[in-house]
């Protein structure tokens, strides 16, 4: 399944203090453990803010797999 992600911020979102354990929510759309971050954002760490990227080209075999394509504005 293809993922279309527009970055507003890079990386995951931290759940504020007051929870039992530290928790991070996926912000990249590539985690296989949604809604939680599993570190998959490392694949997109070189992306530019404000650009839209499509993960899941013709070689896709799962979420976040396949070719990365910048989607024209």
Give a description of the structure.
By secondary structure, this protein is mainly β. 0% of the residues lie in helices and 22% in strands. It contains no helices and 5 strands. A 3-stranded antiparallel β-sheet has the order 1-4-5, with no helix packed on it. The chain is elongated and about 40 Å long. Mean pLDDT is 72; it is low at 59-65.
Throw out a few tags for this protein.
single chain, elongated
What number is the mean pLDDT? Answer: 72
Low-confidence stretches: 59-65
Question: In which range does the helix fraction lie?
Answer: under 10%
Approximately how much beta-strand content do the residues carry?
15-25%
With strands numbered from the N-terminus, the spatial order across the biggest sheet is 1-4-5
Radius of gyration: 13 Å
Instruction: Note the total helix count.
Output: 0
Profile the largest sheet. Answer: 3 strands, antiparallel
DSSP strand tally: 5
Structural class: mainly beta
Shape: elongated
Q: State the end-to-end CA separation.
A: 22 Å
Order of helices and strands: EEEEE
């Amino acid at each position: 399944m293809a993922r279309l992600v527009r970055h507003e911020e890079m990386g995951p979102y931290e759940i504020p203090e007051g929870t039992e354990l530290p928790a991070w929510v996926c912000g990249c759309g590539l985690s296989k453990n949604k809604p939680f971050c599993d570190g998959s954002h490392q694949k997109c760490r070189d992306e530019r803010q404000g650009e839209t990227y499509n993960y899941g080209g013709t070689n896709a075999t799962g979420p976040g797999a396949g070719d990365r394509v910048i989607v024209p504005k």
